[in-house]
Amino acid sequence: MHLNPYGEDVVNLAADLANRRPASADELASRCRAAGLVLEHPVVPGDLDRALDALDGWEKVVDADDERERAELLNRMLATAAAYPRLTDHAGSGWHLHYRDDRQPLGELLFSLIAVGTALHLAGRGMHRLRRCAVTECTTIFADTSRTGRQRYCSPPCANRDAVRRHRARTASA
After folding, report:
1. pLDDT tens sequence across 144-154
2. Between the CA atoms of 82, 9, 28 and 134, what dihedral angle is there, to the nearest 10 degrees?
3. DSSP code of residue 35
4. Predicted structure pTM score
5. How confident is the model at residue 174 (pLDDT cuts 50, 70, 90)?
6. DSSP symbols for 109-152
7. Residue 96 burial (CB < 10 Å; 0-12/13-18/19+)?
8. Which residue, 94, 92, 65, is CA-closest to 3?
């Protein structure tokens, strides 16, 4: 996966993994491959544990009360995960930047990708562009990649459900 910038692809992968947590190392590997990651090592149960730890930390970033808290939590992840930037052509698919050490196991790789990708997404698009769906009973996480930066719902069905609910509430009170 060419992650220049890291942001959108990685943040969407993180949201997908957080919303539907992988149950096994094999499932984690399969979903990462489907997202375009090149896996350089066999995936082991420890990779799943590390990925789930990364997702736990990342959900705290998603649920932060304000921008400062979000930045502080993400900076802690970055301090643990990131290395100096380097050019690489590890998969023979073209030169691109990595913000991590080479040849990491998948769990460490995901931790680094999620931390750096989220930081670039939020710094480039706005600190508010990572959230949970506005429908009260929906807990789905999504990255707001809309042009306007005002996406409130994870999907059109949730947006429609909320619009119907608001309409019914208006007509009932009228």
Report:
1. 999 999 999 99
2. 100
3. T
4. 0.87
5. confident
6. HHHHHHHHHHHHHHHHH-TTSEEE-SSTT---EEE---SSS---
7. middle
8. 94
